[in-house]
Request: fold
Amino acid sequence: MCFFVNQWYLYIYTMNQIRTVSIIGAGNVAFHLARAFVENTIQVNQIYNRTLQQAQKIGEAHQIKYTDKISELVKSDLFVIAASDSAITELSLHIPFDDVMVVHTSGSIPMNALRGDYKKGVFYPLQTFSKGRNLEYDEIPIFIETEKSEDEKILFQFADRISNHVEIINSEQRAQLHLAAVWVCNFVNHMYYIGEKLTTDANLPFDYLKPLIEETAAKIKSLSPYDAQTGPAKRADHIVMQKHLELLQNQNFKDMYEKISKSIAEIYKNEL
Amino acid sequence: MCFFVNQWYLYIYTMNQIRTVSIIGAGNVAFHLARAFVENTIQVNQIYNRTLQQAQKIGEAHQIKYTDKISELVKSDLFVIAASDSAITELSLHIPFDDVMVVHTSGSIPMNALRGDYKKGVFYPLQTFSKGRNLEYDEIPIFIETEKSEDEKILFQFADRISNHVEIINSEQRAQLHLAAVWVCNFVNHMYYIGEKLTTDANLPFDYLKPLIEETAAKIKSLSPYDAQTGPAKRADHIVMQKHLELLQNQNFKDMYEKISKSIAEIYKNEL
Reply:
């Protein structure tokens, strides 16, 4: 009797587990996901990209079959569309299977951009992905969403094999998180770019700024950004700010300097 | 004979070495410098601040004598003015000794803001100083400048006792370095502030962003900021940028988003 119960349980369980994956897309996110899946002994059946060369690069690196023919997609438990935002809907229409799950990896696209009769979800890893970086995948938070509540656990268990930080959030929260990520990653990196430009213009190595960059990022682990703020805008030091505007040659840099300083100054104006 | 030569050499050497220090000011920079000096067994004779309580706090923490009476300054080999930019000249006029060295610690003030008949210099540690942070002082770059070339070695040797990265730069380079620091530290921290605001507004913990913040700072150790850039502005993804502007409620945030995105987009426009 016990034997039968176990068999039945096993049957249900295996139907509800993601064991095989296909990756649609071959950009930076696809590159790192392929590596994360393989490192965690998840079977990747196939990688598709409309440009064969890109699919081939990732495929050959990880012994994954690859194709540039969307009609040749083979069946997997999960299809991960790691493509540009504008390509997601179009690609989602080409997945010819009903009894599979399809997720996209975009921060800014709602789940309902996926069009098909399959199970739908989102698998959003919050990280900046550049090729040539070795990432600790288990430290990258993954934010998941599923159309049907019964699929939540399945996608959660799958994401949990890769990351120690899996969270369930809805599309609105994800959009807000993605916006926040633009500030703390993309915009921060642009500040680094300007820092590099200014130091090299003064014949100084960018390396001089690196301990400061490191401490600025480390500081907010123990202080809130509000408490960590320093600098002329916080002190409303108009003499220094005027000097800085005069030193800046580039009009975009001047505009940013003014707007960012104004925003900081308004937050701290009551503390002076 | 040899004995006399050694004695003579020792005499010259000790005349040209900084053995004792006084600190003028008791803000965040003074706080950390006092700790760095004491940790490196440099004798700090006195700390002065016009508000006794602040001088007392640092003084008592490190067994340093303190005063709020500028007329009671005792003589040291080196006076470090770690005060606000606008107070430097005024304070420098109150140092009543000729055969000492006086330095300020400001990134944006030229050396000639110091007025007196003593040896003049600048001692600029490039770091963001908040109380309540433990810093590795030997990793903080210190940028020095002296009025007379014969003093350069003396100040260098002194700075070298504290930091592994001592560099000689002029006032113009220092001003540019300070401007660069505003971007990679003060402005970056403001981006973190906005990231925190956006996540908490969506009922999400700021912690979700921390692995991304860490990787963004770590990435530029191996990639240039130019190569490390990602995000909608680089891709000229106007759909996402429009959505983000709609999500932002705060007008300052909208203005910054537009200006920073414009600057990024112009740098990468020829790559699309």
